[in-house]
Amino acid sequence: MISKRLEHVVDWVEGNVLADIGCDHGYVCIESIKQHKVTKAYACDIAPKPLARAQAEVKSAHLEEQIQCLLLDGMVGLPEDVDIVVIAGMGGHTIIDILEKATLHRGMHFLISPHSDTELVRKFLISHGFTIEKEKMVYDKHYYPILACTYTQSEQVLSDFQIRYGYQVESSQDYVSYLQKQEMKYQQLFLRVPKKRKEFEKELEILQKRDTL
């Protein structure tokens, strides 16, 4: 069964040929085909066992003609007909490593959902030719950001708040709750760790600037 987080990823899939990097069970590809978001998909994974699970799910859904399972190291060797890429469910450093090794084409779309180090991912994207277009925050036992971006070969400039907490984030209760949780965290740290009060005060100031964006 597809998770709430992956449902939200699929909602934003739009293109002709999808590649899901680190596909696990292949649910993103399967749902994207079923919902007519794309006409063809590649379920990609670096490990044989997850890929075997994906192959079994694809076969069960009778979608073997539209979904191909590929054993790949990230995006290395990805077919050239791909126009939208999903990279979800892994840490920010791993996502950056995948993008650094990839052969990228101008206009290629990405849906990126890191489970850690999202700030580092945003910094990488805006300094390596990607333009972040919109984001959303999804709570599914944990807060997961989803970034929609395009490889434009141009440099994007974001504020400190946008780098930390997102650019053009879809308004939702999940996002409001996430920001409130962050603010509470820094307020508590401000009181508990006197030696780093200036650092936490700066974070609180950045959070408060969201109302002016």
UniProtKB/TrEMBL annotation:
Cited Pfam families: Methyltransf_18
GO molecular function: tRNA (adenine(22)-N1)-methyltransferase activity
Protein name: SAM-dependent methyltransferase
Keywords: Methyltransferase, Transferase
GO BP annotation list: methylation
Matching InterPro entries: SAM-dependent_MTases_sf (IPR029063), TrmK (IPR006901)
Top-level division of the source organism's lineage: Bacteria
